[in-house]
Amino acid sequence: GPGLSEVVAPPPGMATRLCFSVEYRHSSEQLAVSLLRLGNLLPPFHANVTMVQLRLLPDDRRPRQAKARTTGPDPEFNDSFVFQVSGAQVSRSTLSVCVLSVSHDGKRHAVGQVLFPLQGELGQAGRVLWRDLDTEKHHHYSELGDVLVSLSYNPTLQRLSVEVPKARGMQPLMDAGVWMRASLQIHTQVIKIKSSGVVKADGEPAFEFRTSFKLRVEHMDESCLRLEVWRQTDHLPSEPSVPLGVVVLGPFMYARGPQLQHWMDMVNTPLQPVKLWHGLCTTN
């Protein structure tokens, strides 16, 4: 018979897209998700194994994983997943699909993500959906600039390791340097603060900031990491530093979207550094 790729042709355009379907069965309170295929995967990923992690937010802790059966630009999955979720809860839920590319050395590269709020989407059961992946390549997340953040967690040592190699898309500042501040918070209490050195404030400051925090496993769900970019002026030492932007990474209590996804991926792949760009927000 014809392959999936002939049955399910993607819409025109070059975006990397996910093909899937969702169906809610009220009688058994089950959400069935069928993962069909990806379209237009970028060339660097063609030879890799494509992995997908599915979660039903806000409640899902452990992701369901699927591995593509084929490689190339349009990897096929043909996997089905069932989530047990009440009728009241399902319309308040969001299906999160995170696509990873695993290279031959075992390194995981984030390809992109689809966040699909289920409200209003369950009427036409089983229809085939195409959604563009939100990838980190084609836009800056923020007018203030983005920071590249790598997170990993070691449960044995109870250690959270943080790296911020660089930023991009920032306003260059004359006569001023910039520096990073990382703080670990549990509930509303700041537990520890670490700071980087001052670097040149061009559009792409190279922070090369590495630090780690002691963080007990039982605090993972109630703690967050706050990263701030601060301005340092040489000629006015009396002037206080002005925070230029902030990003908060953490569980559902603190974060949504890519910031929540990044934290969950770190928790679910212990010892593996997970690297993503994040847009800076204003500090108020």
From TrEMBL:
One GO-annotated biological process of the protein: calcium-ion regulated exocytosis
GO CC terms in record: exocytic vesicle; plasma membrane
Q: One Pfam family, short name please?
A: C2
GO molecular function terms noted in the UniProt entry: calcium ion binding; calcium-dependent phospholipid binding; clathrin binding; phosphatidylserine binding; SNARE binding
Q: Note the Gene3D superfamilies from the entry.
A: C2 domain (2.60.40.150)
The record's family statement is: Belongs to the synaptotagmin family.
Protein name per the record: Synaptotagmin XV
